[in-house]
Design brief:
Oligomer: single chain
Mean pLDDT: 92
Low-confidence stretches: 1-24
Order of helices and strands: HEHHEHEHEEEHEHEHEEHHHHHH
CATH topology of the largest domain: D-Maltodextrin-Binding Protein, domain 2
Strand order of the largest sheet: 2-1-3-10-4
Number of helices: 14
CATH class of the largest domain: Alpha Beta
Structural class: alpha/beta
Length: about 325
């Protein structure tokens, strides 16, 4: 081989390598959690472990979070590209802070909020909490919607005795009779059922969505910078994430193992329980009617109506249609 031909091949090879490196860097996506890793976050770990993200040419870096507000702040700052957080929190932040973040896919098409009581307490419906002691976590978003849920049943906060406690104390408080009712999420049903079983008791669970609180909750939110500068990557990511979500539904055991592989401190059985609990918020009659991941116009408008009422915001301050971009969700 002549020096000229060798040099030509060398520079062609070098150019291809540089191009590949550039493409790889461009397709790195920083995924922002709205809380710590757990079974309810299984789709992103399945996307990594089962190669669904890799199939779309995407490498994922997962960042933990401490609530939807923090997740949205990081997305708005551009330090994360896409993540999971409450669409209601996004709507409020768009009004109060004008954040440059957009919803691109629904994950929970129902709110996770619920009342938990013991079966032998005589409390079986939301109206029954009148005159009862109710315990909640100080920072849960459920507290924002509590007055609305009570009002829907003709009650006010003054009709209950509300106390705030550490999230880890809620289950023991319920089992020991320190409180009549706790406010918690449907994503933790397995945990509370386990605590009840150890105490020889059974739970009565009253999800707020069954009482008329119809709204979207956890969603895929993306930095406007990300979807503007890398729309193709965003679309491929949504495709991979949706595939992962469907895989988790049909393969909960394998999905729990995938989470454990990446986050070994999470026991497989705990993850599996959370996956089971979460499914009711992702796959239900709303999904059957509208499709997986879809932001349906009327439900989106109702979500904003409830968020505005709960946070005393002007309903006319936001067009909820401008909070989402449906173009990244493949048909």
């Amino acid at each position: 081989m002549t020096k000229a031909r060798f040099a030509k091949r060398f520079y062609v090879s070098l150019f291809a390598t540089l191009l590949a490196g550039t493409a790889s860097a461009a397709d790195t996506v920083v995924f922002q959690l709205d809380w710590l890793p757990g079974g309810d976050k299984a789709p992103i770990y399945v996307c990594i472990d089962k190669g669904f993200c890799a199939e779309e040419g995407i490498e994922i870096k997962v960042e933990p979070g401490r609530g939807s507000t923090e997740a949205i702040t990081r997305l708005a700052a551009g330090t994360s590209d896409v993540g999971s957080a409450d669409i209601g929190a996004l709507m409020a932040a768009q009004v109060t802070e004008r954040v440059a973040v957009t919803g691109i896919m629904s994950i929970f098409n129902k709110g996770p909020h619920a009342f938990f009581a013991l079966k032998d307490s005589g409390i079986s419906k939301i109206e029954d909490v009148k005159g009862k002691k109710v315990a909640t976590s100080p920072f849960t978003s459920s507290n924002v919607f509590l007055p609305l849920v009570l009002a829907d049943k003709g009650l006010a906060e003054s009709d209950i005795t509300l106390t705030k406690a550490d999230p880890g104390a809620l289950g023991p408080m319920l089992m020991t009779g320190a409180t009549d009712v706790i406010i918690a999420w449907m994503t933790n049903v397995s945990i509370f059922n386990g605590q009840a079983a150890q105490a020889g008791k059974e739970l009565e669970i009253m999800p707020w969505y069954a009482a008329g609180l119809d709204l979207y909750s956890a969603s895929l939110l993306a930095s406007d910078k990300f979807i503007t500068e890398r729309p193709d990557v965003a679309k491929r990511f949504v495709k991979a994430f949706k595939k992962s979500l469907e895989y988790v539904k049909t393969n909960p055991d394998e999905s729990a193992v995938s989470v454990n592989k990446i986050v070994p401190e999470l026991p497989v059985d705990v993850v599996k329980g959370a996956i089971k609990d979460t499914m009711v918020l992702e796959f239900n009659e709303v999904t059957d009617k509208d499709g997986l991941g879809v932001f349906e116009t009327a439900r989106l408008a109702e979500t904003w109506k409830r968020v505005a009422a709960s946070q005393k915001l002007d309903p006319s301050a936001l067009d909820p249609e401008k909070s989402v971009n449906r173009s990244f969700l493949a048909e």
